[in-house]
Amino acid sequence: MNSERDSETTFEEDSQPNDEVVPYSDDETEDELEDQGPTVEPEQNRVNREAEENREPFRKDCIWQVKANDRSFHEQPHFMNTKFFCIKESKYATNAIKTYKYNAITFLPMNLFEQFKRAANFYFLILLILQAIPQISTLAWYTTFVPLLLVLGITAIKDLVDDVARHKMDKEVNNRTCEVIKDGRFKVAKWKEVQVGDVIRLKKNDFIPADILLLSSSEPNSLCYVETAELDGETNLKFKMALEITDQYLQRESALAAFDGFIECEEPNNRLDKFTGTLFWRNTSFPLDADKVLLRGCVIRNTDVCHGLVIFAGADTKIMKNSGKTRFKRTKIDYLMNYMVYTIIVVLILLSAGLAIGHAYWEAQVGNYSWYLYDGEDYLPSYRGFLTFWGYIIILNTMVPISLYVSVEVIRLMQSYFINWDLQMYYPEKDTPAKARTTTLNEQLGQIHYIFSDKTGTLTQNVMTFKKCCINGQIYGDHRDPSQHNHNKIEPVDFSWNTLADGKLAFYDHYLIEQIQSGKESEVHQFFFVLAICHTVMVEKHDGQLNYQAASPDEGALVNAARNFGFAFLARTQNTITISEMGTERTYTVLAILDFNSDRKRMSIIVRTPEGNIRLYCKGADTVIYERLHPMNPTKQETQDALDVFASETLRTLCLCYKDIEEKEFTEWNKKFTAASITTTNRDEALDRVYEEIEKDLILLGATAIEDKLQDGVPETISKLAKADIKIWVLTGDKKETAENIGFACELLTEDTTICYGEDINSLLHTRMENQRNRGGVYAKFAPPVHEPFFPSGGNRALIITGSWLNEILLEKKTKRSKILKLKFPRTEEERRMRTQSKRRLEAKKEQRQKNFVDLACECSAVICCRVTPKQKAMVVDLVKRYKKAITLAIGDGANDVNMIKTAHIGVGISGQEGMQAVMSSDFSFAQFRYLQRLLLVHGRWSYIRMCKFLRYFFYKNFAFTLVHFWYSFFNGYSAQTAYEDWFITLYNVLYSSLPVLLMGLLDQDVSDKLSLRFPGLYVVGQRDLLFNYKRFFVSLLHGVLTSMILFFIPLGAFLQTMGQDGEAPSDYQSFAVTVASALIITVNFQIGLDTSYWTFVNAFSIFGSIALYFGIMFDFHSAGIHVLFPSAFQFTGTAANALRQPYLWLTIILTVAVSLLPVIAIRFLSMTIWPSESDKIQKRRKRLKAEEQWKRRENVFRRGVSSRRSAYAFSHQRGYADLISSGRSIRKKRAPLDAIVQDGTAEYRRTVES
What we know:
The chain contains 42 helices and 37 strands. By secondary structure, it is an alpha+beta fold. It has a nine-stranded mixed β-sheet, sandwiched between helices. Strands 20-19-29-28-27-26-25-24-23 form a nine-stranded antiparallel β-sheet, sandwiched between helices. A hairpin with a 2-residue loop joins β12 and β13. α6 packs antiparallel against α7, α22 runs parallel beside α30 and α24 runs parallel beside α25. The longest helix has 39 residues. It is elongated. It starts with a helix and ends in a 28-residue tail after the last helix. It is found in: Endomembrane system; Membrane. Belongs to the cation transport ATPase (P-type) (TC 3.A.3) family. Type IV subfamily. Keywords: ATP-binding, Magnesium, Membrane, Metal-binding, Nucleotide-binding, Translocase, Transmembrane, Transmembrane helix. Its EC number is 7.6.2.1.
């Protein structure tokens, strides 16, 4: 069995998942997988080699062809696809984005078609048709037509408003401008006019309108810096570099207009970090990779001008490919309500069928022999029964009232406005209110089980701040005066003594400034000097001000801190760096930069001082620095204690150290460095080995502590949501250490939390799979499910897993066919059957593995997934939806969150640092993560409670109203005679009983908003579906049945033997109808008074106003005047005036109302006294609870010398910046026609100028 399984596919188990790498999330072809050799090469070397060696096969596979400056090329017949019948369109998408659903022509037909796809609307359309048939119509056609028209109209208007908003948003994006070459010149064009093959010009801070090939830029060697926050959530700058040939020849407008390059590349896909193609130009081919492509959604930074060729446009761009499909979202209550409506329809059909059979029997036994009942038609009793069946279908249709759907839409619309109008969710700094972008999901906000949150820009502000440091074993950064005395309140440090300070740093330790200015401790000066010299930051001067261009926000924060403390980085060339040291400028010769990467977790710089000494300066993570320290480091333990303190405060740290190098030692090392720099294979590994030789016996200076600033109120919000039994998962593209640090900062993780990593749970899942296989495997369908917890009970656990481990664990890792299967031989039927079974086994194994992972993850109090792609974010959300059947909410602020937001039941967009992509795709949006607690715990809970009360009451009042016809049928020969006047039936749900229930659905609240936030445990009623389920539905149904019996039989008993004041018996049909209708209206309106928790003048007015309105309209409709005008429509002339002047009938109405309501009052009293709910208890104590409770941050217990975790290190950029600097490629020089800068080991360069 195992051998058969293994021969089908082989997982690459020999390669361990890499925690630092964002995995590809799209399907790779088998050819791509087979091309991956076992040896590891430098990325650029590998790309170039593969492009050269595999160009011919590649051209066969890559059928996406782009011709520069030639729009007609892309309109050729073989590029056209048939869209509909003979209508054809180009396979190259236009750059216009379309998120709207309708236009002026399609709105009415498409909207009506969508609305009639709803079972209820279609049901009422059928009823309307039945009412138009005279033989079976028992009610006037307008009783259904008017409410149906109202429903369709309100829904259509709401859909129109939503779609107009989408049109505006699309128009705003599509009408952005850029410069495009037309007629040989750059002209301003709208984004929607850009097409594949166009050459465009972009400027600093422009959004990139399409996926483009970088041709040239104003930077040296056509470098271009981009911010990819929209794609991966990272705010650090990344650089792209054009081909040398395009950099040389495509700088001028005329050259760009004449450019006729031809590109063959891969088809549009969603792989953000991968691109393969070839440029053919000037009879030469040039390989293209992802480093030469600028993606839509990124922003040009620190680059004045760049030029590019559009490769993918509009829907074909990678950001749009990652957006996922727009899903039609409906609430859990919607689905439940539909099933209940289907149940009612079944009950309606059964009742109608039973009454029709009764009528057929009655006709056969009584009707045919009663001459006074003859109607002139000689129908058989069975046919009369058939007609009666349809008659009762029409009469009893109000059990499924169409006004229910109107009211639900109105309530949801108004709840959305309440969210929009909530000033406590308004963010004044950016003038951003909360916005409900959909009106159909409000009550689902009260049922959330899992929240999936992005990190960067959602939990954090994308701002790094220098907070503390440890120098020579002494911690600086507390609130201290120059005399080392601590103060709770102290003014921030005044940096005015430093002319180069930017004045933006808030620092409160005056003692550190005293130490710097006094110069007593040389280590303090040395510490900030390391920060100023050991980095890869670039500097520009504008109007005398220094502007730093940092590759990561961490580096920017550290260099800025050094600048404020008197050590300012002023300038750099290819082999020098200039520092202002307390006002004195000194220039150092850079001998080598030992770059950072994710394995080294450190960077170093070797410089020669003006005095001629050689010194190495290094900064890095404490885990790697401590391994390389000299044994004689006196402050090693004190610095470790400081690192533990910083870790407990969730600060990101780096250790700083240095080393003096002898001239002879450097000369010998430099030879090895030169040899490693020019090697052609495994260059990175060779350099790392050489770096190791020099980075040892280091002298520790101290450590820095940076705060990755959280948004305001994040820990408090997470704490309250956790108390509401909502689990929070963080899904981020950032690295593991950073994500873990933020987990501690926002109190998602605590010092007591046991953290499990990918390798830990992989073994657990493997063991579980083996146990399941031994018990019958994943195919034991009929065995009772055995729930075995993965962890022992008790204890607080969290899971931190990277994207690579996620693919490994969920069996999403790319597979390749075993070589055995590549043998070509004829396949027998038996072989095909075995192959099919093998595929099914693999799918079953994958499904079981994924289910086990979800079960394991849900046992953890928190889950953090880092280094995940947009597609993986959506996959994690989908797994929880699929296997836990739980209501999910996804919240994010960037384009990399769009797929996740669309996949979750509810998507929330934060209008923040990363553009508006997430907001445009979301269901709700606001400016700060902290508003989420109010959205869920207040608006969500209230909406859920209101909707549940509304539905329970609506079903009750309609059963009480409709089933009176059923009881009446036993006394009228089952003849489908109505128990009420037609106009009463028409207006009952529209006027007489609609307003009170509507206001309860809009305004009711069991406790105030402050108490809702103070007691998050109240939220669990929605998670457990306690207020609206089948049990509650049948209780409401039973309540309605009993009320209808009381409403019918008490007046019936009163009418049997009675005499009025005038000596006449008021026991006619019309007086009976008025009595029952009056008792019904008073009963149902008083009943909603009992259901109301929050009384206002509006509620009281609506209840008594509805009763008064009923009597006013009834007396008008029963007047002689209206009967004269419309004799056929108003036939109850004088009935109300005649009946309601009888005290006996008033006594009957009062008795009926009392018998209907008193049992309800008694049950409510007993339940609140004996079995009070949590909200009942809080309501009783609400006056004592008025004082608002202040949230307090959890105290960190610090134990000296004991650290339960390592602090995160403050690095977040990829390898490559040192090469740029030392090669001179990023240094701005006067441009020659061709600058070919070549790096060698001694940091020299030569310039070749085209002759």
